[in-house]
Amino acid sequence: MAEPLSRVHRPCDECPWRKDCKPGRFAPERWEALRSTSVDPETGYGPEFGGPLFACHKTPEGGERTCAGWLAVEGINHPSIRFAALQGQVSACALEPGDGWPELHESFAEASSHDMSEEYDHE
User: Fold this and answer.
1) Structural domain count of the chain
2) Closest by alpha carbon to 102, among 19, 30, 36, 27?
3) What digits encode the pLDDT tens for the residues 20-68?
4) Cα separation of 69 and 9, whole Å?
5) What is the reported pTM?
6) Which domain holds residue 83?
7) How far is CA 15 from CA 58, 88, 112, in A?
8) pLDDT value of residue 78
9) For residues 117 and 119, what is the distance between their CA atoms, to the nearest angstrom?
10) How far is CA 28 from CA 1, 61, 117, 119, 121, in A?
11) Which of 17, 31, 38, 115 has the fewest Cβ atoms surrounding its Cβ within 10 A?
């Protein structure tokens, strides 16, 4: 079996995929850089195989782990994640919200729009 996908197993308190998360956590430039991790709502096209994954903002640079919220909402749309699931590197349960999870945004567009509804607070 191949190496398991390095991931966070539950959205953190500040996860931008949480509907109850305070807006203004990421700069607009960061959202733009992360756009390629998810399906484009205008074209319906998704990320390319081998393209970047949405990492948890609380994991250190160089030791990034995939964001649990992103995996549960957009992960199935990413060809690298689908391939990882087929290879046993990520379980199917990671591709949907778990029991007792907070309510999550339904798309990258919704999560980014919510976060950018208030000015980036530089925390």
Assistant:
1) 1
2) 19
3) 999 998 899 999 999 999 988 778 888 889 889 999 999 998 999 999 9
4) 9
5) 0.88
6) 28-115
7) 9, 26, 12
8) 94
9) 7
10) 39, 20, 10, 9, 11
11) 31
